[in-house]
Structure formats: C-alpha cells, structure tokens
Predict the 3D structure of the following.
Amino acid sequence: MGTEARAGRKQLLLFTSVILCSALSRGAVYTSDREVSVAENKPAKLSCSYSGFSSPRVEWKFAQGDITSLVCYNNKITASYEDRVTFSHSGITFHSVTRKDTGTYTCMVSDEGGNTYGEVTVKLVVLVPPSKPTVSIPSSATIGSRAVLTCSEKDGSPPSEFSWYKDGVMMPTDPKSSRAFSNSSYSLDHKTGELVFNPVSASDSGEYMCQAQNGHGTPMRSDAVRMEAAELNVGGIVAAVLVTLILLGFLILGIWFAYRRGYFDRTKKGTSSKKAIYSQPSARSEGEFRQTSSFLV
C-alpha cells in the first residue's frame, strides 16, 4: 500500500506541475466592456488590456456569421480598416461605425516567441432605428380557414420586434386576455412578426397594421390593409360547376353532331392520295428504242 500511495502522490505532483506550466504559459487578457452598443455613425472604443507578456503581439479578428476578417495584425491596423480604425495598447477605436460593423471582435495577444497567449472577445452592436415595415395581408379570408399575416423589417439593429394593430387597437399576445379580441383565435410571434388566425372568425374583419421597434429611434408602422372575413360561397361554387358541365355538354353535342353530318368523313376524303398518271409513248423511229413512258407522281 505504501508503494501505491507514493506512486499516486507522484502522479498527482506531475499532474499539478503540468497545470502550473500551462497556467504560466497563458497571459492575462481582459476588457472593460464585453458588449459595446453605439449609434450608427458614432465613434466606438473596444478595450483590450493584457499583462504577463514580455513582448506582446496584438491581433484583432472580426466575425459576423460566416464572415471573418482581420482588423489588426502584429500591432498594426490592416489596409481595409486603416482609414477608420486606430490601434492602441488599450484597444481599437472606430472613428465612425456602420451597421456592417455589428459583430464579435476577438483581441488575441501573444509573445513573439509564441510561448504565451491569451484572448478576450468584445461584442459590438451598432444601433440602427427600424425602417418602415412591409406586410403581407390577404384582402379576404374564408371563415373557418387558416390565414397568415406577415410583417418584416430588415434595417433595425438590434433586430426589431413586431406588434400588430387591428382598427387602431394593439392586439394582445393572448386574444382571450382582452374582451375586444376574445372571439378571435390567433397566435402572434413578436420575433418573426407572424400573425396566424386559425380558424378565421367573422369578427376578424378589419384594418390591420404592423409596428416595428428595437428600442432605438422611433417605432415605425406599416400601411393599414383591410382583411374581410367571408363565408364560403357554396352557391357560387355550385353555379360555377353547373356552368362548366353545361359548356362541356354543348361541346360533346357539337362533336356528335359533326360526326352525324359526316363532316369528319369529308375531311378524310378531301385528303388526296398520290395517284399514278400514265403517258402514251411518243412515236419513234424504227430500230430506235428508248423509254418514253413514265409515271408521274
């Protein structure tokens, strides 16, 4: 047991020394603001401080979805950013941000020899007011069916949330929570802007309008569009079917009458087939022979 205990203690000391060596090889990198929000066309400072590096080499990487680019390389701003970004040992500063600058920035610090490394990320949100939203609203919907109303807006940053109004009154998320909408059955998604009636009721007729807001600037509203909830027109459908059947009957009767009158037979007879025409041979001298008859087609 004593031998096993000593072996276990030796392994523990070895493991501890590996951890200490790993900790010593990693420098300290930190930021004063993990998330920076600033209005479009305004300056923005992304901070990055560090310690434990003898000869620090700083790089900044930008990521937005699938797009990745290098803002700073080896303590110098890259060519694509040099006209509007300044580097310092405490971070980078945008002279004027645009909505395309929204994304995640990573400050990476290492020694020239590569023995010490550390990084920190900063999220930049460029605030952009929403634009006028666009809507898709059916002009009519059949009572008892499903109707989908959509609202979208692409400019707002952060992304806008959406509210719906019917006849100037804001629609609650739960229709049963309001007496004015208790007869409706709908679901409302504030993130996607989708309003779904399932099923449509007679009380759903009215003018609908969508509002987009993201907490920055003035909320924007779409144009109002009227939707009529109507009963299924059974009589109209039956009438359309009857008219179609009558027209089909006349067509069949016309074809039958044409056959009875022999119109199609005359058409076949009028198609001339190829005929052979025989020509009498012309006079020829005695002892001379040549083919003088021919068949013309």
Observations:
- The helical segments are 2-24, 234-260, 263-269.
- Residues 3-24, 287-297 have pLDDT under 50 and may be disordered.
- The radius of gyration is 42 Å.
- The first strand starts at residue 28 and ends at 30.
